[in-house]
Write a structure and sequence with these properties.
about 625 residues, alpha/beta, Rossmann fold, Beta-Lactamase, 6 domains, 5-stranded parallel β-sheet, 22 strands, ATP binding, DNA-binding, transcription, P-loop_NTPase
């Protein structure tokens, strides 16, 4: 708990102090005893390091001035101690004039002993050794021949030729002094801890803090306040209205009312200021101003939003992830790069599967907003009411089932970054109106709330429909169309970039072969021709799907035309690709039901080791059709 240092004025007192300390049995406390007679000797010592000092009489009074911040506890001299000393004086000496000399605490009430014992006493208060010596000389001159007191007083009196009686401290006084010393040390430690906490709050707070007294004089300024406002180092004690009238603390002192969230210009910068009165017993005794630069608040808000978007609201793809080297895709990438240099809204159009979100993420990552969040939402995937609450958020109690405290919308989450509205053509007319307000005013209002929240968001929209035709048909708002369609990026379909088909297929085929722990497969010329002739209605997304099927289903190390025919999507597309592809394999793969004669069926079964699934795949038909034809030709019966 701590260390107690006891200053004892006579050696015999050590044993009593030690015994009393042990009897109290308080673990964690350390006892240090110093024998000293005279304050000057104690003051010269520099090795006293303790939590609390216990002393008595003049020694205690002097130590309170000498020990600085270390508390000093008086070891009281009780009335019983003085009575015992006076009684001893009467027994030992034929006393005529007796004086009691000591500190204020020691002699308090001593005069009343005259009435109790029918004796005349001179009572003299002394504070320091010099005072004591002169006082005792004056007592001797006045006829006093016996001095009752502590060590210092009796030593001086003996040196001056007077008789003396020493006032000994009783055990009960030692007991109470030790208990009080422990209490004082505990309280001091608690105060130190609170003081350090308060100092840490002041020193490390990012907010400036200034407090004033009832007269408006500054009595506390933290480091942040001095840095923000440029206050001089000698500001404490000076009127706040002369140094910082913008803070308005005198107004709060006069009104006794808090003023929160005010914006003031101080030292050339805008500050968000809170002013609060300090009221005790219905009386304003001071005021506190806390303030922070608006720019710092905005920066902190950005960091918070950055942490939020790191939970998944992030664009991971860049222009380097867009595969292809055809002139069409190169032109599109070049245009998109130019769009990334500005903050205008972008409309990306293109057939399904052309990579609209990849381009949206790439534009975001190449823009000045790359460190902000990227929030993507599919407008066709959610019903209208749910999409509205997701986009704009809602206040607590806005509707049944609303989360306590409300919820932040996607536009708020995207603040400082980009929001990607995929399939924007599917937004209802009602939501189109709310979206228009965001684009015009750059602010949103949560559902069920009346508070306007400013947002800094770039919008990238995407659709596979013709928004212009929808606008002319009254299905899409004209004003919203012209707000969204500022920069238009048209993505080419895969059939218009045939140079990229085979490189893309090889890339994805290798990817899925390695992912499924299979050898990487090659593509023979007939299969390549078939892939290039296919019209790819699903574009790159369909090509990727086909590559995954081939990685799993194709049995040999080389993918041929039959393998391609087995996995192409759609009977019409398959036949179109097959019929335009030369080679016997393609002819076999393109055979229709009439052409599937017995010889072709047997050949396909033989090549597939009589595995009906692989045989059907080689023929480009379903297993049902294969079973029907085998039954027709009585194969296997």
């Amino acid at each position: 708990m701590g260390k107690i240092t006891v200053i004892i004025p006579y050696p015999q007192m050590r044993a009593v102090v030690e015994q009393t300390f042990q009897e109290q049995n308080d673990p964690g406390w350390e006892l240090d005893i110093i024998f000293a007679t005279g304050v000057r000797g104690i003051a010269r010592r520099r090795d006293i390091s303790t939590d609390v000092v216990v002393a008595r009489g003049v020694t205690a009074a002097a130590l309170k001035r000498l020990m600085g911040d270390t508390p000093v506890v008086d070891m009281p001299v009780s009335g019983y101690d003085i009575l015992r000393a006076v009684k001893a004086c009467q027994q030992r000496f034929a006393a005529t004039r007796i004086a009691i000399v000591g500190s204020k605490d020691m002699i308090y009430g001593a005069k009343s002993i005259e009435d109790i014992m029918d004796i005349k006493l001179a009572v003299v208060e002394v504070r320091e050794e010099d005072d004591a010596e002169q006082s005792i000389r004056d007592l001797k001159t006045s006829g006093v021949d016996i001095v009752i007191g502590g060590v210092m007083s009796t030593q001086i009196a003996e040196r001056l030729g007077l008789k003396t009686v020493f006032i000994e401290t009783g055990r009960e006084a030692i007991y109470h002094a030790l208990r009080e010393a422990k209490r004082v040390a505990r309280v001091r430690r608690q105060e130190q801890e609170r003081s350090e906490q308060f100092r840490a709050i002041l020193d490390y707070s990012t907010e400036g803090i200034i407090t004033v007294d009832a007269a408006g004089a500054i009595n506390l300024v933290n480091a942040a306040a001095m840095k923000i406002t440029g206050l001089p180092g000698e500001a404490v004690g000076r009127p706040v209205d002369k140094l910082l009238p913008q803070l308005g603390l005198s107004r709060v002192l006069a009104s006794g009312r808090a003023e929160l969230g005010e914006i003031e210009t101080v030292n050339g910068q805008q500050l968000a200021v809170n002013r609060v009165p300090i009221i005790i017993g219905n009386q304003t005794v001071g005021a506190v101003a806390t303030f922070q630069p608006v720019a710092d608040i905005q920066a902190l808000e950005g960091k918070i939003r950055q942490k939020i978007y790191k939970r998944g609201l992030v664009a991971r793809l860049t222009f380097d992830d867009i595969l292809g080297d055809s002139p069409a895709i190169r032109r599109t990438i070049a245009t998109a790069r130019e769009f990334s240099k500005v903050n205008s809204n972008v409309l990306i159009t293109g057939e399904t599967g052309t990579g609209k979100e990849i381009f949206a993420q790439s534009i975001h990552n190449a823009s000045s907003r790359r460190k902000g969040p990227f929030v993507a939402v599919n407008c066709a995937a959610l019903p209208e009411n749910l999409l509205e609450s997701e986009l704009f958020g809602y206040a607590e109690g806005a509707f049944t089932g609303a989360a306590r405290g409300g919820k932040m919308g996607l536009f708020e989450l995207a603040h400082g970054g980009t929001i990607f509205l995929d399939e924007i053509s599917e937004i209802s007319p009602k939501l189109q109106g709310r979206l228009l307000r965001v684009l015009q005013e750059r602010e949103i209002m949560r559902l069920g709330d009346d508070r306007v929240i400013p947002v800094d968001v770039r919008i990238i929209a995407a659709t596979n429909r013709d928004l212009y035709q929808m606008m002319q048909a009254g299905l899409f708002r004209q004003d919203l169309y012209y707000r969204v369609d500022v920069l238009k990026l048209v993505l080419p379909p895969l059939r218009e970039r045939q140079e990229d088909i085979i490189p893309l297929m090889r890339h994805f085929l290798r990817l899925y072969c390695l992912r499924s722990n299979r050898p990487v497969k090659e593509i023979d010329p007939d299969a390549q021709v078939m892939l290039c002739r296919y019209h790819w209605p699903g574009n790159v997304r369909e090509l990727r799907n086909i590559a995954e099927r081939l990685a799993v289903l194709a049995s040999g190390p080389v993918i041929g035309a039959r393998d391609i025919a087995a996995v192409l999507t759609g009977e019409t597309g398959r036949r179109k690709a097959i019929n335009e592809t030369a080679g016997p394999a393609a002819a076999l793969a393109g055979a229709n039901d009439v052409d599937l004669n017995r010889a072709i069926l047997l050949k396909a079964l033989e090549e597939a080791d009589y595995h009906y699934g692989r045989a059907a795949a080689r023929l480009g038909i379903s297993r049902t059709t294969l079973w029907r034809r085998l039954k027709q030709y009585q194969v296997g019966e």
